[in-house]
Amino acid sequence: MGPKRVFLSALLSGITLGALYFLVASGFTLIFGLMRNVNLAHGSLYLLGGYLGFEIADRTGAWLLAFPVVVVLVALLGVVLQHLVFRRMEGEELRQTLVTIGLSIVIADILLWIWGGKSYQILTPDFLAGPIDLPLVTAIRSDGTAVYLRYPRVRIWILIAAIVVGVAMWRVMTRTRIGMLIRAGVDDRDMLAASGLPIQAMFVLVFAFGAGLAGIAGIIGGTFQSLAPGEDTRFLLASLVVVIVGGMGSSPGAALGALIIGLAEQLGVVYAPTYSVVFTLLIMAAVLAFRPQGLLGRKG
């Protein structure tokens, strides 16, 4: 494999990995960045969504059916968490942190008990299986014909899905009444509550939506990677880094942070595998040192 082909493959892999990180972090940035709820069980919601998606797709053979079912189930769990945990601990970040760490451990043990320590992968549906030729020339043959980069079709569609989710979230939060109410409720909850609006119901819906996004990301992650114990911690840490780099409460920031972290990981694995993790930590440290609110975050 030539150096140009290696670079283009690593570049695309970084972009598509960033797309997956964004799908996980987009729900996390709603819950943590906008609502100031420290939900360290978010990675467990990702892994639970992946396992449920595997079971549904495996038993029914319908990959697409897994999405609405998983969204509803994981969102309901999010409603339970918001009602039983976060509603009783509003503004108490330390208690939220400790409680959700405990919840993540409990959920991880339950998942290990049900699905064991094996690695699972959700089978790619036929219409997404196989590679696709991208209009990226990697070499020229001796007869003058071009050699194009072949890349897994499913990863391209994951990238498209992440773009659609990102644009939709940005439009909802900045161009709709419900988005403005959510942002106003975060900035001044007492004032908005005095206007007679159901703040708690609105925040429960936001929490459920963020949890549902984590479930969707679990299905997608299980399709082109794998599902195994420990993936919940990996994606929770990735979400934290993405939110720190991009900026809390900013969907465009989460997208930018996910892209940067995804590229750093994949290019690091290819060109400096010994230091690939260090690159991510250096990026986070640099952002915290020079722009602690994140690249696209707001001050204060």
TrEMBL record:
The keyword Transport applies. Belongs to the binding-protein-dependent transport system permease family. LivHM subfamily. InterPro entries: ABC_transp_permease, BCAA_transport_permease. It is a multi-pass membrane protein. This is Branched-chain amino acid ABC transporter permease. One of its GO terms (cellular component) is plasma membrane. Pfam families: BPD_transp_2. Keywords: Amino-acid transport, Cell membrane, Membrane, Transmembrane, Transmembrane helix, Transport. GO terms for biological process: amino acid transport. GO terms for molecular function: transmembrane transporter activity. The chain crosses the membrane at residues 6-32, 39-57, 63-86, 98-116, 154-173, 199-224, 236-264, 270-290. It is found in: Cell membrane. The lineage of its organism: Bacteria, Pseudomonadati, Pseudomonadota, Alphaproteobacteria, Acetobacterales. The keyword Lipid biosynthesis does not apply.
